[in-house]
Design goal:
The protein has 293 residues and is of the alpha/beta class. It has one domain: 3-Layer(aba) Sandwich (Rossmann fold), CATH 3.40.50. Helices cover 37% and strands 20% of the residues. The chain is built from twelve helices and eleven strands. Strands 7-8-9-4-10-11 form a six-stranded mixed β-sheet, with helices on both faces. β10 and β11 (253-259) form a beta hairpin. α8 runs parallel beside α9 (208-225). The longest helix has 18 residues, at 208-225. The chain is globular and about 50 Å long. The relative contact order is 0.15. It binds adenosine-5'-triphosphate (ATP). Adenosine-5'-triphosphate binds at residues 52, 57, 75, 77-83, 232, 234.
Amino acid sequence: MPRRRAGRGEASLYPRAARRRSPARRDARRAAGAGAPFVTPALRLKNLSVSYGATPVTHGVDIKVAEGESFALVGESGSGKSTILKAVAGLAPHWTGAIEAFGTPRGHGIDPGFARVCQMVFQDPYGSLHPRKTVDAALGEVLAIHRLGDRDGRIARTLEAVGLEPGFRFRFPHQLSGGQRQRVAIARALIPEPKLLLLDEPTSALDVSVQAGVLNLLKRLRRERGLTYLLVTHNLPVVSFLCDRLAVMRHGRIVETADVSLLRQGALREPYSRELLRSGERTVERQELEADP
Ligand SMILES: Nc1ncnc2c1ncn2[C@@H]1O[C@H](COP(=O)(O)OP(=O)(O)OP(=O)(O)O)[C@@H](O)[C@H]1O
């Protein structure tokens, strides 16, 4: 059984998790791999079974995502990918098993400590932003929930980080384009300075012409902030661009977990994964995506 690092007691976990690690240390942790002993994963799902009422949706899902890693869930529609994200975010409260971020388990209800380190970005920026709240109000609300000060400074810095000019601060959602709205949604997730982002099809509701810009932004933010991503997508080029590993889901179960290099080589092991690969959508033009630095 993997041993836990000394001093990673439950009470002190969130302050430790929120501390920025040096890139060298992060690379070393990544090189150690998600399954290596002594390394507490950023996210651990153990035997996770989620249901809606009496209907079971996922069955015994096990996932470990290392700190700084980007991990994708792919698979056919209805296989339970978004349900896993919802359970981690506290939006699907009927589950068994365990959900841990940086070694600390979350409960089934509202968990403000967990929300501080783990935030979610939804697929549809039109639905996820309140139509009567300005960008300033949407971001300020998150700061108030987490009792974070320096409201003006944090909002200004976060808008800059997502590539929005200061003038966007007092606009309403209907005064923004789809891509700008999704940048606001990303800003809202980023503003409490989480370490782990749950990304549910973050670009699929956007026009193809703006998808690449948002994907490039997510890639840069991860690099600059040492973020960990758990991403749901149907778009395999997005997985290839943004992720290190992927899990293929079918009927609520993981059928294969693989390094993204196998996806790129077309060398996934399971017949179902290969079928998915053959039918993979290609909706983002590769040339629009930035190369790795
Ligand atoms: N709030 C809900 N209440 C009841 N059933 C739900 C709810 N949300 C999702 N489901 C059902 O759970 C199953 C899994 O849905 P989920 O959204 O997790 O799949 P998915 O793999 O993310 O699909 P897609 O790729 O189409 O988004 C589906 O059968 C869906 O109808």
